[in-house]
Amino acid sequence: MSDSLLTIGKIVNTHGIRGELKVLLSTDFPEVRFAQGNALLFVHPETKQQVKATVEHARPSKQTYLVKFKEYGNINEVEKYKGWDLKVTKDQTIELPENEYYFHEIIGCRVVTEEGEELGVIDEILRPGANDVWVVKTPARKQILLPVIDDVVLDVNVKDKLVKVHLMEGLL
Fold first, then answer.
1. Per-residue confidence (pLDDT) for residue 3, from 0 to 100
2. pLDDT digits (tens, 9 = 90+) for 58-96
3. DSSP calls for 47-107
4. What region does 81 belong to: left with phi over 0, alpha with psi -120 to 50, or beta?
5. In the 8-state DSSP scheme, what is residue 76?
6. CA 83, CA 17: separation in Å to the nearest integer?
7. How far apart are CA 158 and CA 122, in angstroms?
8. For the chain, does the N or the C end have fewer beta carbons within 10 angstroms?
9. E strand residue ranges, 70-148
């Protein structure tokens, strides 16, 4: 069941006394995810226990989002959810523009050079700034850091879980 869920944030704290939660985002679409009336799942990181909740209102605040859920009216009712993940079902996936991908579509993809040489599998995605960096784990358990730029990433086929890249000098 948890494979069919996408994490959109982590509850890091409470805010005020009326039951608002401070959420660290892991979605590029907070205004969509936290729209009034949206159903979200609180998921305990270890036990995977799930609790459904409905967004009453939300607003950005510094590096986080402050979210109030209809089901909870005060701090005592939400305090226990600190550290829980916020998730949506995969059927709530937002259609992305061409050449944009979800993390879950990229992680696990095989990476080959334009010559067909097998490099490894994308293990992690880093977001240091100007562009994402895909971390490729090689069969020798080494890591290759691939900047996600047009000069390097030639083709992404999420259906076949295959990424074709051009190795610029200095990448290996």
1. 57
2. 999 988 999 999 999 999 999 999 999 999 887 777 677
3. T--EEEEEEEEEEEETTEEEEEETT--SHHHHGGGTT-EEEEEGGGPPPPPTT---HHHHT
4. alpha
5. H
6. 18
7. 12
8. N
9. 85-89, 110-113, 118-126, 133-137, 143-147
How far apart CA 118 and CA 164 sit, in angstroms, is 10
Taking the C-alpha atoms of residue 135 and residue 123, their distance in angstroms, rounded to an integer, is 6
Q: Beta strand 118-126 with 133-137: parallel, antiparallel or unpaired?
A: antiparallel
Strand partners, 124: 135
- Kindly state the helix (H) or strand (E) to which residue 104 belongs, with its residue range: helix 103-106
Asked whether residue 131 carries a pLDDT value surpassing 90, the answer given is no
Q: Give the lowest-confidence range in 32-36, 81-85, 149-153, 168-172.
A: 168-172
Query: Distance from CA of residue 167 to its chain's centroid?
Result: 26
Give the model's pLDDT for residue 161. 93
Q: Is 111 helix (H, G, I), strand (E, B) or coil?
A: strand
Distance CA 40, CA 13 (A): 17
pLDDT given for residue 134 in this prediction: 92
